Amino acid sequence: MPGPTNVPMEVLRAMNRPSTDVYAGELVGVTDSCIDDLKRVFRTSGSVYLFAANGHGAWEAAISNVLSRGEKALVLSSGIFARGWGEMGRKLGVEIEILDAGWGCAVDTRLVEERLQADRSGAIKAILVVQVDTGSSVVNDIPAIRRAIDAAQHDALLLVDTIASLATTPFEMDGWGVDVAVGASQKGLMMSPGLSFNAVSDKAHAAHATANLVTGYWDWTFRRGAQHYMKYCGTPPVHLVYGLRKSLDILLAEGLEAVFARHATLANAVRQAVAGWAAAGVMDFNVQEPSQRSNSVTTVTLKGFDPQPLLEFARAKCGIILGLDLSDRAERGFRIAHMGHVNAAMLLATLGVIETAMTFLDIPHGAGTRAAILSLASELKTSEVQRCAR
Ligand SMILES: *Cc1c(COP(=O)(O)O)cnc(C)c1O
Question: In terms of pTM, does the model score above 0.85?
Answer without folding.
Answer: yes
